[in-house]
Amino acid sequence: MKEKLKIDIVSDVVCPWCTIGYKRLEKAIVELGIEDQVEIEWQPFELNPNMPVEGQNLQEHIAEKYGSTSEQQKQSQDQMTEAGAELGFDFDFFEDMRMANTFEAHILLEYAKEFGKQTELKMRLTASFFSERKDVSKRTVLKEALLAVGLNAEEALARLDNEEIRNEVKEQEGYWQKLGVRSVPTIVFNRKNAVTGAQPVSVFKQVLTEFLENK
To answer: Which of 62, 128, 194, 196 is the most buried (most CB within 10 A)?
Structure first.
């Protein structure tokens, strides 16, 4: 049996371009008919590791971090909403939207990996945040997402208070940062080559084809 092409996606739950990037990659995989030849693993990255528990108003946060004006933000959000719609994903940006702390979401994504449900949980959390106006730092929201994808919520949530597990996820974040990952999504193929950003479907098709031909 041929070895699968390993794809690591370094991303955050509250990163809109990560969602768009993944959906485009997924489309490329489906259109090439290579679903059984690739293996996707999500790697943790926090856009805002110092985000307070109560989060921060999205507009304020983006203005602080990127210096974007309200007009620029609106333009960018319209662009993302349009890109999402083309891929069947609903971005619902609203005035009082808040950025959330995502560290505990990443712990649960590690848990989901053990049961082959990482992508499912990732997409559920992303939809909770962007489509359903939910705060993904709240454990009630995290529990809902776990149950929605058929995971043992009690067992998973118990990990959130385990210091050793928390440190392991911190170390994993550090590992990708040491490799030079500064922006997300960063999509790594066979731990050799990386593509950053939400590339067009055609670019992903080209990269996937090259890798599969040279295996």
So the answer is: 128
pLDDT beneath 50, residues of the chain: none
The reported pLDDT for the residue numbered 66 is: 87
* Residue 64: its H or E element: helix 58-66
Of 42, 44, 2, 4, give the one whose Cα is nearest residue 208: 4
Sheet holding 38-44, edge to edge: 38-44, 5-11, 186-189, 193-196
Look at residue 3 in the predicted model and tell me its pLDDT: 86
The tokens 């170390």 sit on which residue?
171
Which pLDDT score is estimated for 53?
A: 85
What are the counts of helices (DSSP H) followed by strands (DSSP E) for the chain? 9, 6
Question: pTM of whole model > 0.90?
Answer: yes
**CATH code of 131's domain:** 3.40.30.10
Measured distance CA(168)–CA(99) in Å, rounded: 24
Number of domains in the chain: 1
Output phi, psi for 96, to 5 deg.
Answer: -95, 20
